[in-house]
Specification:
The protein is mainly α. It has two domains: 42 residues, no CATH class; 30 residues. Helices cover 40% and strands 0% of the residues. The protein is rod-shaped, with a radius of gyration of 29 Å.
């Protein structure tokens, strides 16, 4: 008789795929997902909180600097309009 293989007994990935069903691929050893859905080495988010690094565009200082620049531009346009008259 044909014996079931070890692959059939392996735990399965429970990630949702495009059609809404579960993936059902065998999981990577020591992980809870298959190699496609995050079980592969190097996949997933980086260790630590490196995704939260800020670029500074919306910091209070940057916003204040942009407001000052806009105010200066507004005043310069007004002055230029007065000089043309």
């Amino acid at each position: 008789m044909h014996q079931p293989s070890h692959m059939k007994k392996a735990p399965r990935c429970r990630a949702r795929i495009r059609n809404g069903k579960l993936c059902q691929s065998p999981v990577v050893k020591g992980k809870s997902r298959c190699r496609i859905h995050g079980g592969a080495p190097g996949s997933g988010a980086p260790i630590g909180n490196r995704n939260a690094l800020k670029h500074g565009r919306y910091s209070a200082e940057a916003i204040a600097a942009r407001r000052e620049i806009r105010a200066l531009l507004r005043k310069s346009r007004e002055l230029a309009a007065q000089v043309k008259k």
